[in-house]
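Service request form, structural biology core

Requester: graduate student, group of Dr. S.
Request type: structure prediction, single chain
Budget code: on file
Notes: please return the result as structure tokens.

Sequence provided:
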Amino acid sequence: MSAELSALEGVLDELGPVVVAFSGGADSAFLARVAHDTLGPSRVLCATAFSASLAPEEAADCRALAAEWGLRWVGVATGELEDRGYVANGPDRCARCKTALMGALGPLAAAEAATVVLGVNVNDLGDHRPGQAAAAGLGAAFPLVAAGFTKADVRRWSRRLGLRTWDKPAAACLASRVPYGTPVTLGTLGSVARAESALRALGLGQLRVRHHGDVARIEVPEDDLGRVVARRFAVVEAVRRAGYAYVALDLEGFVSGSLNRVLAGARSAGGQAGS
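Core staff response, request fulfilled:
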């Protein structure tokens, strides 16, 4: 067995019982499976936070993965949309989201005498991610970081372990598609979810639909730009059905966290962009 995986197992052993924040993505799925195999199902509870910011396909896949792998699993409701600060969508939105998440998972962890663990990897430590600090401040642990796992490590080990999530495209919460300062509403999240679901039905994998009022700005990897243009009529129809009047293709391609650029600009100009 590799020293990498042994290190992760050692971190989990030291933590003891855990509640895994299980979004169904490659990172949280890998963490859930290794925790399950290392600690046993009685000491691992996987919890999926259900809210409007979780794409319906992701919610369904969480249920499917839990059944396939025999995980002890529960779904919990989070109420971030009840927080006016979250809806206002300032640079602290992710911190407010993670605060709501910890508020939902905290009672589960207390009942299990467990630690809440999140699937944060080493590569996630950059960019603007105030949610990590908020979660850590409320007692969450990041076993993948403690064991030195990068995103590439997670995918490589997931493949070695035969996990079908090894090449699953990254799928951040739907609120990350909404520019800071634009309110996060049920209607907006619904439009983004419908548009992305329709584009995946057309065969696109990694993608983002960035919400700019009545304009949907589509980001796909550079290699897929030609495919989108070739199928532009189907793409436009699909996105308009989701509620957008105009459809734009970002020629730069897919950029994770592209909406955070405005924060970097604010910092360079001497503004306070948040942590």
